[in-house]
Amino acid sequence: MTKILIIDDDESTRETLRMYLAEVGYSTFAAANGAEGLDLWKRESPDLIVSDVNLPDANGLEIMARMKESDPNMPVIIITAFDDMKSTIAAMQKGAYDYLEKPIDINRLKISIQRALENRLMSERLAAFLPDEIADHELNDTLIGKSTGMREIYKKIGQTTNTRVTVLVQGESGTGKELIAKIIHYSGVTKNQPFVAVNCSALTETLLESELFGHVRGAFTDAIRDKKGKFELAGEGTVFLDEISEMSESLQVKLLRVLQELEFERVGGETSIPVRARIIAATNRNLEELVRTGRFREDLYYRLSVFTIHIPPLRERKDDVEALVVHLLNKINLKIHRSVRKIGDGVMDMLKNHDWRGNVRELENALTQAVVLSRGDVLEKETIILRSNDGAFKNQLEVGIWTLEEVEKSYIKIILDKMDWNIARSCVSLGISKPTIYRKIQAYGLKRDA
Ligand SMILES: Nc1ncnc2c1ncn2[C@@H]1O[C@H](COP(=O)(O)OP(=O)(O)OP(=O)(O)O)[C@@H](O)[C@H]1O
Ligand SMILES: [Mg+2]
To answer: What digits encode the pLDDT tens for the residues 425-441?
Structure first.
C-alpha cells in the first residue's frame, strides 16, 4: 500500500487530509511538527510527503531538504497559506514536486499525488539518458550532428581555418550560423585575436557605417571624439557581419571596396586604414534571389560567396535530433541548475517528428521550457509545447495575422492547461505575478475546459 506522510501543525487540516487520502486507498501518517515528521519519515519510509511550510519548530522546505539528502527522488508536495511567487519559486527550486495554496483543493491534491507517484515510478524504470555533466565550454562551443549535411559542414570548416578567406554562412533562422562563425574563428589562425560581431539589421545606415568604420571627431553632431570601428577593433581577428542582406545599397558599395582594396577610411577621416581582419558574413535569406531581384549587389555577392557554407534546416537532418537533445539538455541543466537526465516515453519520437521551423533555436527553447515545467529528473511529454501541436496556432502565426495580445492569450491558456490551472505554477512558468495572471485571465475571459 502506498504510504503518505502529512506534516502540518493544524489538526483539522491533518484530519481532513487523512480522511480524504484514506478514501482513495492510501495509508497515511500525520505529524504536527518538523521533528515528529522526520521521526515518522525514518520509521515508516513513506512514498510521498505532503508538508506545510510554516511549522512550529522548522520550515517545511528545510525538512524537505533533509529528506532529499538521503533520498533525492522523494516526492514532496508543499502546502502553504503564505503563497507568493517568491516562495513558490524557492520551493520548486529546492525540489518540491508541487506547490499548493490553502485552502487545499482536494482534487488537485489527489491529481498531484498521483502524478508524483507515477513520475517516481517512471524515473526508477528509465535509465539515465544523459552522460555525466560535461564542461561548460564544450557545451557552448560544440557543433553537434553526424548527419550527412553536418559532416559536409565539418569538412568545409576544416578547409577555412588555416586561411583568411571570406566565408558566407547561409541557413534558416536558428540553424547555427553564428555558432559556426565562432567555431571557424576559434579553431583557426584567428583564434587568439578578437571576434567582433555586427548585426547589420539592428542599426540605422549612419550608425552602422560608423560602427563598422569608426569616425573622426566632428564627422557628425554626436561625434565628440574619434572612435574606432569594428574593422579596426577586430585587428587580425574576425568581423562577423550578421544579416548581411539588410545592409543598405550605399554601405554595400563601401563594404565592396573594403573587400577589394583591403582598406577604408573612418567616417569624416582622410587617412586610409588597412584591413587585416577576416570577414564572415551570415544571412537567413536567399542572397542569390536578392541579387536576381536587384536588392543585393551582384559584385558584392561574388566577393562574399567565394566560400559558402550552407546549413540545412533541422527538419532535413532528423538524424541529428537525438544527439542535439542530449547536448542541449546538458546545457540547459547547467544553466538553470536542474538535473533532467531521463527521457519519458514517446518524447524522442515526438521531437524527431516535429518540423522545427525555428530549427535548433526552437528545439533549445522548447527543451528549456520543458525542463522548467518538468518535476523530478524525467523530461515528461506533457511539458513539451510544440507550435504545431495546435495547427491553428501555428498556421495563423505563420501568415502573421495574430496580434501580440492574441498570442499572449493563447499562450497563457496553453500553460494554464498544462499546469492543470495551478495558478502558482503557471506564474512561475510564465514569469509573472499572481495579480497579473488573475488580471489576464479576467481580461481575456480564459476558462478551464470542462
Ligand atoms: N549543430 C548545433 N550543435 C549545437 N548547438 C547548436 C547547433 N546549431 C545551433 N545550435 C545552438 O542553437 C542556438 C541558435 O544558434 P545560432 O544563434 O548560431 O543560430 P543562427 O543561425 O545565428 O540564428 P538566427 O538566424 O536566428 O540568428 C544557439 O544556442 C546554438 O548554440
Ligand atoms: Mg544569428
So the answer is: 888 888 888 899 999 99
